[in-house]
Amino acid sequence: MYNSISVDGLNALLWTLTAVGILLSVGRFAIRYASAGRFHLDDASHLLSVLLLVGLAAAYTHGFPYSARIASIGRKEEEAPPLTDPFYRHYLQLRLVVTLLVFMVLWSVKATFLIFYRLLFDVSQTFLRLWWVAVALTFATFWVCIGSTFTLCGSASDLYDFRKCSSAKALHDIRTTYKYWCALNVGTDLIVMALPLYMLSGLQLRPTQKAILGGVFSLGLVVPIVDILRTVESLESGTFSGVALWSSLEVTIAVIVASLPLYRVLLTPKGRNNIRSRLSGERYKDVGDSPAETQRRFCDTLASPGKRSVSTYQGDLETQDSESSKYGRGIQQVPLAQLSR
Questions:
Q1: What is the number of alpha carbons within 13 Å of residue 311 lying toward its C-beta?
Q2: For residue 12, what are the contacts with CB-CB under 8 A and spacing of at least 6?
Q3: Local mean pLDDT, 10-residue blocks, the chain (341 residues)
Q4: What is the pLDDT of residue 4?
Q5: Is there a contact between 123 and 337 (Cβ–Cβ < 8 Å)?
Q6: 3-state secondary structure of 317
Q7: Distance CA 190, CA 198 (A)
Q8: Are strands 318-319 and 332-333 parallel, antiparallel or unpaired?
Q9: Which of 156, 285, 301, 333 is most exposed, with the fewest beta carbons within 10 Å of its own?
Q10: Rounded to the nearest 5°, which phi and psi values hold at 279?
């Protein structure tokens, strides 16, 4: 099935999805500025992921012909050039650049989600402890993946030695490395996505509102699914077109998914009205336009098309702190952290 996909077709798909990611990212930035009046650290992280994606797309475009030729040589459809040919070194150099950029794109997307969730639940001490654990694991796994990239062919000095990189031992080690790369990527994705879902369990919201927010927070689960499919394709068939297709889908979908949570605001009349009010310079009539209240309205818009997420704005997100309950403290008020000023 994948053999029918040409290099030109892969490039067309890659740049189309990259353009979609860029456009959605521009929209994300516009929505954030219109609704919050300023940008936040997660916007900077997302901008970094977009820039890295463009660089990765350029590297893919340059490297696809090299990978296609290697695949053709492997199928004995083309006579292999001598191992002293610069082609092999160029191929391995491009493979290194592409691999590093893939990790940078994927982990910058994780950082975007982590920062976004920190902005939402910053005042919950339980969440902050879990958040720091997730940050530490994400940071550590990133450097494990980066470091192992330089030892794919054995030692770092053999990185551009095609003879050693194509040996039976190196190929076996590469397959093993692909498996634990997938495990680390998928594992950290699930940890990052679990943070807001854990917090939802303590919010005093209607089941439908929790389902909506849960859906918004679960958008990132698409990325590990694609990563698993890409890894399976790499290990099972290993066709150039199949691996290139799933690799292109993974990085572009990751950036696209990171853009989507803020678009929930545009799907409701209340969200659109709030943005129009911000753009026209109007103040909210029922509450002062303070930073916390503006942020609360943002989350309220995410949770419900036409109603407030809870009965009052002063305690719009309440969680039951189980540890506090043991000591008779009852319900602890946990409003969302500041999102705008």
A1: 0
A2: none
A3: 77 96 95 87 96 96 91 85 91 94 96 92 86 96 95 88 90 92 95 87 75 79 90 82 88 94 77 71 45 50 40 30 37 35 37
A4: 64
A5: yes
A6: coil
A7: 12
A8: antiparallel
A9: 285
A10: -65, -35
- 206 three-state secondary structure: coil
> Which tokens hold the place of 61?
């475009």
73 DSSP assignment: H
For the chain, the residue count is 341
| Rounded Cα–Cα distance for residues 50 and 112 (Å) | 11
Q: Tokens standing for 341?
A: 């000023």
In whole angstroms, what is the distance from residue 63 CA to residue 70 CA?
11
State CA 82 to chain mean position distance. 41
> What is residue 202's DSSP assignment?
T
Q: How far is CA 11 from the centre of its chain?
A: 22
Rounded distance, CA 174 to CA 177, Å?
5
Tell me what pLDDT residue 97 has. 95
Alpha-carbon gap, residue 329 to 332, rounded angstroms: 8
